Queue: 3 jobs
Job 1
Amino acid sequence: MIELRHLRAVIAIAEEHTLTRAAARLGIQQPPLTRLLRALENELGVQLFERHAKGMRLTSAGRSFLKGAYDILERMDETVEDVRRIVRGESGELAIGFTNSAMCNPSLPATLGQFRETWPDVALTLTEGNSSQLLGALRDDQLDAAFIRTSIPYVSDVVVELVLEEPMVVAVPKSYPLARHPPGNGLRLIDLEEEDFILYQSQYNNGLYKTIVDACLGAGFQPKIRQKGPQLMAALNLVAGGLGISLVPQSMQQHHAGQITYLPLSIRTALTAPLYLVFRSVRMTGAKLYFIHQIRRISQHAR
């Protein structure tokens, strides 16, 4: 079997022209180098060098082999450097998932833009989905990290970090009296007692859906849930259609501005919407580590 040491030996002999100098360059004795060359020539069934008074001279077969040896070692060096650049985070791929509401927060698109500008050789792939889909893709190694609105139960080797919490607002169809005559000091939850709620429900039942329902129960009433949407954006679409109200993260109030009025909650009723970064604690490449570091900086600035 031909190995890299055979290629390096042929190159050294061809460039040094003598076995003695080639052996010294390779850091071995001359007899082992002679045996190595003889074994290689036997393996190939050809003579690579001719011996003459001034040393070693390549045969025509040897010149062809030398060219191939240079090409192989050059590609090997390029491959090694590519791998090192990936580990350093200078190249490679990074697959990021997000719920549609997550990207409404301006901090995340800005961070992604900065990452792409800082690491232009890292191919950044973005995938949108709901929390369940993104977590499944994360476990299947299709994603390196994901942004979700719902905390999840403990899963081995999956890290969940709170990035930020933002105020929630009440999304009300513009045709509703509540939108035309809102309380001056912000809405209390009890002001919504007679309204039809449209909520987003994750499969884990411990995210915004539970937060809103628990808050309403704490205010003294059971919310009348008219519809459950698979995503926050779907809930807003239903609100825009006049089917009811919803509570959503403040950053989503840019959507359906013509059909929806977004009303603040009173200070005493303040609810917040969390945003989590989830990732597996395996395959921690340089690019992934740097990306996580950037997101943690958002978290630090938000506090």
Job 2
Amino acid sequence: MSLPRVHTLVRDHPGLNPFLRHLDIPPHAPVYWHPNGHLHRYAENGEAQHIPITTSTLLNWIVRHDPDELWSFWRHHLRGQRVLIEHTSINPVHPLHLGSMRGTVIGSGLARLFRSGGAQVQTRYFVNDLGRQLHILQRAAGTARWDNAPTDLRYDEIVGVLYAFANMTLGRRAGDLARLGAEHPWLGKVVDLHRPLPAAASIPELVRAMVAAAVTDMNHIGTRIDVFDYETDLATQPDAVLALAEQGDLVRVNGTTCLRLPGGLVPVQRRDGSLLYFSRDIANTIRRRPETWTAMLHVIGSDQNLLQTALHHAVPHACLEHISFGQVTRAGRRYSARQNRLTTIPDLLREGGPQRVHEYSLALALHRRTRPIDIAHLDTARPLRTVLAASHAGGRVGVDRGAHPDLLRRLMITLLGTPSVLARDIDRRTVHGTARHLLLLSRHYTAATHTGPVPDELGEWFRRTHTRLLDLLGVPPHATESSSSTTEFTKVSA
């Protein structure tokens, strides 16, 4: 049999790998695996060392130890850290879509990684229930005839259409309105298409229903939110803006007070003295008591780089980190709530059920978080199919000998290096390495089983590690559980 040649050296963490600790390698010494089984490391005097490790040595160690030992050192690796992670936080004017879902995948994955390493983690969702976008939506939703709304669409999907309608009406975009009406024939029965929008009416239950819809969608990929912060609960005073003068340069542009940074201007206060979103973000950061956290991670798109830099500048004592991710497009076009150009979780559920959601979730996780993604060119089905196929892989029928030793060795090296991959993802604030490791582990195991039976003990090591990685990425082991795509939410009346 001809085996594929692999020349890549794989870095490992001796302090997290129980096999390497068994060899008495210093826990913080860099160690690299060569696919032929040799360990490469450098002694304190700088001398290179090559330690031969045979397949039988690895296998003998594995069959004598329980798979749970793989995690014995990782469980305490992050103990003592208190981490706050804010992610998703979509405005309550449209459903969760694939663009914002990328932040959910990264944010919830990081939360699970930190927790698995022993850190104390709290996830947050910041609800913007004071902003201009909600005000625009309220002008359309306040007088909507909800009884005429279609029953085959979720409430948040209907709200998303109303929000686009309100924007198009205010912008007098007749062509867009005609397109929206053609795509949603029911719209004319719910709102008056050719009349000016009425004044905005406060609808608190609308915000609650939209947040509940987002939570339902996030549950499909195992996401848990611990605390919801509402803008309306913030006690923000104009004096807070004056305090910014001590941190940076304030200028006035057409009456608006702005914080001047090297990257541009950030508006903080209107001419009439009212505060803008950035100022409320400052208040929210301070209310979270930043001095009590080891790190505060904001998982948000890279288009918010300037605002996040300004926030860090305004609250320098907070351990703020902007975990930016690249834009998600479809066939080169941005997702747009104002245009109602979205691919939502209900869309995916109607297309292929919960498994379709998990296909996209894993596909998004496999890409480096800063890299832009075009959904039209994203390989979605194959990665999850590869991962799940490994769960059912068996030995080749009619083969008397076991699986090929070289393939077994690669499998065992990959298994034992799992905690070090998680540690690198924590350091890099990403889930990319974990997702790729899951795919690589699945391929190694499937390739080994194609050449013959894998020892039972090694098979158990694989299954338990594989299941844990799936859980860290929010993917059920079979990813085929039934789930309703028509979750009911209370309809809102003015």
Job 3
Amino acid sequence: MTTQAPTLHPFVSGRFSPARFRRDHVIAPAEIVSLIEAARRAPSAGNSQPWAFVAGARDDAVHRRMVRHLARSSGAWAPDASLLVANLVQRRVEDGDFAYSEFADYDLGQAVAHLTVQAHDLGLQVHQFRAFDRDGLHREFAVPGHWEIATLAAVGLPAHAPGEVSGASTSRDRRPLDEVLWTVADAPAPGNR
């Protein structure tokens, strides 16, 4: 499929996941509330809202408790973020064995995406990651069995430009449009994938 290069919203084309954060940035309590409020307003299947969050501003008690459970790889950069957010998904109804929603992970992703857009509006960037001890965090925050910490998000001011990590360049390349768009209305589907 050959198309003209699309015009993208500046947030979409400029978003990146910082690998280093500025320690001199302090996030305001009102900004934290606005991030969680943006996540709270995300759409969800049947308005089930299967999400919850644990948020710790750098160097507060919650943040210190979260940092103890980071993996070596994320522990090298995530503690410097102004805010760490644990993103929880509801797996089943309390006191029940049936699944809460087959869309729960998707819905949590929507909520974190809304948080990411709000962070951008505040001049911040978000780096979502999974390099942490999930069981340790569950114990640390007494997460009930029907909930799961799916991911963490580090939020703050980046200490580097997009594509630059500790002086090295990292690729922000994406797969070509032809590889991710299978078909367009009134056009044949591409060959086998």
